[in-house]
Write a structure and sequence with these properties.
The protein is mainly beta and 446 residues long. 8% of the residues lie in helices and 33% in strands. A hairpin with a 2-residue loop joins strand 18 and strand 19. It binds fe (ii) ion. Belongs to the carotenoid oxygenase family.
Length: 446
């Protein structure tokens, strides 16, 4: 018998330290407002209340690798000169890490940064050495910017979406004074659709063609992105509206309300890369691939994209074999979080070729976390689904919390580890395959 030793700790962020010291939130968080920081002088407090540049570092959403170091990430600051960074930086197969962020002053601008691969860094700052700004692009709305959570990266391109879920400048600039949380600064504008931007990964230059979707939608996670015959395929988790963001509010959880008005599903966009739009015919589908039902039609100076919705509602937290990230792939895995539909208590495997799902389902009332794919060791050249899925199966107080190890090929359990202590609600997970250092461990290998 082998032992598995669980450990858990709070991220020792400024936000956490100050909140526990003063028993109130000092920084503006997504769901909670900021309070006056007693440790700061009058003028410092005045400036920070007028200019929301002093953002939270409460990185609770994800754990990422950058050059041999582990970092916690969320829509917060991330040592790259941006005000808000996204939760899902993308690690390329060459070890480069791409991030998406936004700056507030002067005006809202999206920024894409690239952190080059480097020998294992000795500390956090070194991990970001050599970071370059690939893109700085103004928001399409001068008085707002689009909420973003993730973006797509292929071998040659990066794809950004501007959702009609807007953080409004007038609210952001006064949120501290008015006592607003970040969620109070967000407005859903379904009268707009989704603007899609494609840029070259090599130099950050934008593809000049304007792309817009035929319907509005909300998007959380990118499953994968890849190129096929001059078209970028972008697989996403989308829904008709943003109600899923409310599912994690404490009042709803405490009431046991596990219902979303808008359920999430796997969706594919097909984006033909057109440097010179005039060469493309109008009013015909520009997507030549038979691997998708998504269409792209040029009308005047814009290409309109229609969505290819895969079967089954409720899919969230997509994961893939990292070896196929940015490349054509077949399988993705998803769990449903608090969903009560087909993904209730389940981990699903989607065959994107046959468009069919295969499920492993836990007992009623259990909640699997994001499944993390771990490839079979030494499995070079093995099947894409040769490996295991790791998921924390929460028992919600009625059953022990467990770590499930599922065979990703057969979607059957291989092992189950029961924890005697409680495991907090988990969102994303990361597999650390080798010894790695973190500053929280004093630089000691774990
Ligand atoms: Fe996420």
């Amino acid at each position: 018998m082998r032992k598995l030793l669980p450990k858990k700790r709070f991220v020792q962020s400024d936000a956490y330290k100050k909140a526990t010291k003063y028993n109130k939130t000092i920084y503006t968080e997504f769901g909670t407002r900021a309070h006056t920081d007693p440790s700061r002088g009058f003028f410092s407090r005045l400036v920070s209340s007028i200019l929301p540049t002093d953002m939270t570092d409460n990185n609770f959403n994800n754990v990422i690798h950058v050059n041999g170091q582990l970092f916690a990430a969320c829509e917060t600051t991330l040592s790259l000169g941006v005000n808000l960074c996204c939760s899902h930086p993308v690690t390329d197969r060459d070890g480069s890490v791409y991030t998406l962020g936004v700056t507030f002053i002067p005006g809202f601008r999206y920024q894409v940064n690239r952190i080059p691969p480097a020998p294992a860094a000795a500390n956090g700052k070194q991990a970001f050495a050599g970071a370059q700004r690939l893109l700085s692009m103004p928001s399409s709305w001068t008085t707002a910017y689009s909420y973003y959570h993730s973006f797509g990266v292929t071998d040659s391109y990066i794809v950004l979406l501007e959702l009609p879920l807007l953080l409004v400048l007038s609210k952001v600039m006064t949120m501290v004074v008015k006592g607003l949380a970040l969620k109070d600064c967000i407005e859903w504008h379904p009268e707009h659709r989704v603007k899609v931007h494609v840029l070259h990964k090599a130099d950050g230059k934008l593809v000049k063609t304007k792309y817009i979707t035929d319907v509005p939608f909300f998007q959380t996670h990118v499953c994968n992105a890849f190129e096929e015959d001059g078209t970028v395929m972008l697989d996403l988790i989308t829904s008709e509206g943003p109600s899923v963001m409310e599912a994690y509010f404490l009042d709803k959880l405490r009431e046991g309300k596990l219902y979303n008005e808008h359920t999430m599903r796997v969706t594919r966009l097909a984006i033909p890369v057109l440097e010179d739009l005039k060469t493309a015919p109008e009013n015909v589908n520009l997507v030549g691939s038979d691997s998708t039902r998504a269409q792209a039609v040029r009308r005047g100076d814009t290409v309109t994209l229609s969505l290819d919705l895969f079967p089954e509602e409720g899919a969230e937290y997509p994961t893939i074999n990292p070896a196929v990230r940015g490349r054509p792939y077949r399988y993705l895995y998803a769990t449903g979080g608090f969903e009560q539909g087909p993904f209730r208590s389940a981990v699903g495997k989607l065959d994107t070729h046959s468009r069919t799902w295969q499920f492993w389902r836990g007992e009623e009332g259990t909640f699997p976390s994001e499944a993390t794919f771990v490839a079979r060791p030494g499995g070079g050249g093995a099947a894409e689904d040769a490996g295991v899925l790791l998921t924390a199966l929460l028992g919600a107080g009625r059953r022990p919390d467990r770590l499930m190890v599922l065979d990703a090929g057969q979607m059957e359990p291989l092992a189950c580890v029961e924890f005697q202590s409680r495991v907090p609600v988990m969102v994303h997970g990361t597999w650390v395959p080798t010894e790695i250092t973190s500053e929280a461990d004093g630089g000691e290998g774990k």
